[in-house]
Write a structure and sequence with these properties.
heterodimer, A: 450 residues, alpha+beta, Peroxisomal Thiolase, Chain A, domain 1, nine-stranded mixed beta sheet, 17% strand, B: 2 domains, five-stranded antiparallel beta sheet
C-alpha cells in the first residue's frame, strides 16, 4: 500500500455545549463553530475548502433526514463533495478519520469536518430510549433498553474480574466479597468523576463544570448500580468543527498546524451477550503469559478499543503510550468506561485501571482536586473535563475532543479558554478516542505538534 | 391556537409546550424563540425473519439457542449464521437454569420502561454454551443478587412475542437475615 499523504489539522471551533440551544438550530450551531474556526486562520477562504464530512448520530433526535445536506447548504459549500458520517457514539471520531482519508488519499487539499447533535428535541428519558434503539431491537432493547444499564452490567463484571478476584480474593463469603469490591470500584469511579468535573471548571465550553467533592460524588442518586449521576454523561446540544489540510497547503494557513499522526479503528459485536471469551490481542510490550487466566474481552473490556489502539500506535510508531503521549482525551460516557479504556489503550495493563486512578496518574499536576494523589500527572486523561463534564452532543463529541487536543498541542489553550489552567506545558503528542454502542465501534487518532 | 405564553426558563417552556402545544422562550441573549409540540408516532410492520423460531419457542416455554453446524460454537442469543466461521447454525433448547454472569439494578430507564423501575438486568450464562442471554431478573432485590447466583427461566402467558416473554428468577429463595 502506498504511504498516505501527511494530513494536518489547521483550525477548530466548538459551540458551548448546553442542555438546550433553542435559539439556534443545528445549522446555525455548526455555522457558529465554523465561523470561529475560519476566524482563527484568516488566510483560508471558504472557496479553499474542497469537501466536507458532516456527522450526526441520530435521525430520531434530528427529526430531519439529510440534515448534513442542510449544513452543507447553510455553510455555502455547494456544489462540493460532501457526505454524512454516522457511527453511533463514535460518530465524531469517525468523521475526523473520514476527513483524514480524503486528504491522505490526495483527493482533496482541504476538508471541513463538522458535527452536531440536537438532543434537547425530546425529554431526557425519551432521549435515553432513542439511544437504546442503538442496541439490538429484537434481543436487547425490549428487555428494558437503557445504556446506563448496559454499562453497569459491563463494569460489574470488570469489578468481578479485576477487584473481586485480586484485592478481595481473601474475603471468603462470595456475596460479601463482591459487595466490598463494588464499593471500592465506586470510590475510584467517583475519583474519575471528581477529576473530570474539576478540570471542566477551567473550560468555558463545558456544560457541567463543578468543584465536586468525593462526598458529593458518592452521595448522589443511583441510576444503575453501581453508576450514579455524576459518573454518567448527559444529553447536550452542540456543534464542533475541525479543518484538515494536506502538508502542501497547511503551512500556508497557519504556522502551528497539528499533524494527524496515525489513525486506528476497531469493532465488536453489537450485542453484549455475544462477546467472545478468548485471548487478549497483545501490545508489543505485553507478555503473553500475563493474561493467561483472562477470558477476553467478555463483557468486561472493549476489544474494539484495543484493536483501534493497536492500529493507531502501529501507524504512528508509538511503542510506549504512557511515555510517548502527553495527554489523552477519551470517551468517558461513564466513569467506568474511562477506567476500562485506560486498559484497552495500554496506559496500564488489564486489571490495573483502578490502581492507575487511585495513584493519581490521569490527574493534572497543577489542579487542586482535594485528593491525595501520589503520582499525579503521569498522563493527564480528559484535561478538558471529558464527556462527563463537557457534555455529549454525540455527532460533535469526537470532533470536540479533536479541537481540544489541537489547542493543547498548539499551546493555544489560553487564547481559546481565556485561561491556561488546563494547558499541558510542552505537550507534543495526544490521543483522542471515540467510542460507540456497548463498545461495538471505537476510533483512536494520534495528533502531534508539527 | 391562543398567543403562546412567554417563559424565561426552558424547563417551563417544555412543560407549557407539552400541555398547550406552544410557548415562547425568552433566551439569555434577549431574543425570543417560538417552540411548538411536534408529535411523531410510527407503527412498524416488523418481521423477526430468521429469528422467528426463537420467539415462537418462547411462547411454548422453550429458549432456543443456536449451534454452528461446522465449528459447534453454541449461542445463547441465537443467530442463523456463525460469527466465528460463517456456517449455518441449527436450533437447540437451552437449559432452563443458568447463572448470573453480570447484573445491575436500574433506577431509571428509557421512557418506555420508566414505569417499571427499579428493575434488574442480568446476563445469564448456561453450562456448555459459549455466549450469554440478556434478561430481566425478577423476585430479587439489589442486595440479594451476585455473580454466580443460580437463576431459572419463567415464561409469560399469553406471550407478547417479545424477548421479555422470558425472564429469570432466583432458583433458590434468598435467606432472610
Amino acid at each position: 500500500m502506498p504511504a498516505p499523504r501527511k494530513v494536518y489539522m489547521i483550525s477548530g471551533g466548538v459551540t458551548k455545549f448546553a442542555k438546550a440551544h433553542p435559539d439556534m438550530d443545528f445549522r446555525l450551531m455548526v455555522k457558529r463553530a465554523f465561523d470561529y474556526a475560519m476566524k482563527d486562520i484568516p488566510e483560508l477562504r471558504t472557496s479553499d475548502i474542497e469537501s466536507s464530512r458532516i456527522s450526526y448520530f441520530s435521525d430520531h433526535f434530528a427529526r430531519q433526514l439529510k440534515a448534513a445536506s442542510m449544513v452543507q447548504d447553510y455553510l455555502g459549500l455547494n456544489p462540493k463533495d460532501s457526505r454524512r458520517i454516522e457511527w453511533g457514539g463514535a460518530t465524531g471520531g469517525q468523521a475526523i478519520q473520514a476527513g483524514w482519508e480524503t486528504v491522505a488519499s490526495g483527493r482533496n487539499e482541504v476538508c471541513l469536518v463538522a458535527g452536531f447533535e440536537t438532543m434537547s428535541h425530546v425529554e431526557t428519558w425519551k432521549g435515553n430510549e432513542f439511544i437504546a434503539l442503538a442496541s439490538d431491537t429484537n434481543f436487547d432493547y425490549p428487555v428494558g433498553g437503557f445504556y446506563t444499564g448496559y454499562y453497569a452490567l459491563m463494569v460489574q463484571r470488570h469489578i468481578y474480574e479485576y477487584l473481586r478476584k485480586t484485592k478481595f480474593a481473601h474475603v471468603k463469603d462470595e456475596k460479601k466479597a463482591q459487595r466490598e469490591a463494588t464499593q471500592e470500584a465506586k470510590r475510584i469511579m467517583a475519583m474519575v468523576s471528581v477529576k473530570n468535573h474539576v478540570n471542566a471548571e477551567h473550560n468555558p465550553y463545558s456544560q457541567y463544570p463543578e468543584k465536586l467533592t468525593m462526598k458529593e460524588a458518592l452521595g448522589r442518586e443511583m441510576v444503575a448500580y453501581p453508576l450514579n449521576r455524576p459518573m454518567i454523561c448527559t444529553m447536550s446540544d452542540g456543534a464542533a468543527v475541525a479543518i484538515l489540510a494536506s502538508e502542501d497547503v497547511a503551512f500556508k494557513y497557519t504556522d502551528h498546524p497539528v499533524l494527524i499522526k496515525g489513525v486506528g479503528c476497531g469493532t465488536d459485536t453489537m450485542r453484549l451477550a455475544d462477546r467472545p471469551h478468548g485471548s487478549v490481542p497483545l501490545f508489543p510490550w505485553e507478555e503473553a503469559g500475563y493474561y493467561s487466566d483472562l477470558r477476553y474481552p467478555g463483557v468486561h473490556s472493549f476489544r474494539a478499543g484495543r484493536a483501534a489502539a493497536l492500529e493507531a500506535y502501529k501507524n504512528s510508531g508509538i511503542r510506549d503510550p504512557k511515555k510517548e503521549l502527553d495527554f489523552v482525551e477519551l470517551h468517558d460516557a461513564y466513569a467506568s468506561s474511562e477506567i476500562q479504556t485506560y486498559e484497552d489503550i495500554g496506559l496500564c495493563r488489564y486489571g490495573e485501571g483502578y490502581e492507575f486512578v487511585d495513584q493519581g496518574h490521569p490527574f493534572l499536576e497543577d489542579i487542586d482536586y482535594g485528593l491525595d494523589l501520589p503520582h499525579r500527572g503521569t498522563i493527564p486523561v480528559n484535561p478538558s473535563g471529558g464527556l462527563i463534564a463537557c457534555g455529549h452532543p454525540v455527532g460533535a463529541t469526537g470532533i470536540m475532543q479533536g479541537v481540544f487536543a489541537f489547542w493543547q498541542l498548539q499551546g493555544s489553550i489560553r487564547k481559546h479558554f481565556g485561561n491556561d489552567k488546563l494547558q499541558i506545558r510542552g505537550a507534543k503528542r495526544g490521543l483522542i478516542h471515540s467510542h460507540a454502542g456497548t463498545g461495538s465501534s471505537v476510533t483512536v487518532t494520534i495528533m502531534e505538534r508539527a | 391556537m391562543a398567543q403562546p405564553r412567554k417563559f424565561t426558563k426552558f424547563r417551563d417552556v417544555m412543560k407549557e409546550v407539552n400541555t398547550k402545544g406552544a410557548a415562547l422562550y425568552k433566551n439569555p441573549a434577549g431574543t425570543e424563540d417560538l417552540v411548538i409540540l411536534s408529535p411523531y408516532a410510527i407503527n412498524y410492520i416488523h418481521s423477526y425473519a430468521e429469528d422467528s423460531p426463537f420467539f415462537l419457542g418462547l411462547a411454548k416455554g422453550k429458549i432456543l439457542g443456536s449451534e454452528c453446524k461446522s465449528c459447534h460454537y453454541r449461542y445463547a442469543t441465537p443467530r442463523s449464521h456463525c460469527m466465528a466461521c460463517g456456517a449455518e447454525t441449527e436450533w437447540f433448547a437451552l437449559p432452563k437454569e443458568g447463572r448470573v454472569h453480570s447484573w445491575t439494578t436500574c433506577y431509571y430507564g428509557g421512557e418506555e420502561f420508566l414505569k417499571e423501575t427499579p428493575f434488574n438486568l442480568a446476563l445469564v450464562e448456561f453450562d456448555g454454551v459459549d455466549t450469554l442471554l440478556l434478561t430481566r431478573l425478577k423476585d430479587a432485590k439489589e442486595a440479594d443478587i451476585f455473580i454466580g447466583m443460580k437463576v431459572k427461566a419463567v415464561f409469560r402467558h399469553p406471550p407478547r412475542y417479545l424477548i421479555s416473554d422470558v425472564h429469570f428468577v432466583p432458583s433458590e429463595k434468598p435467606r432472610k437475615k
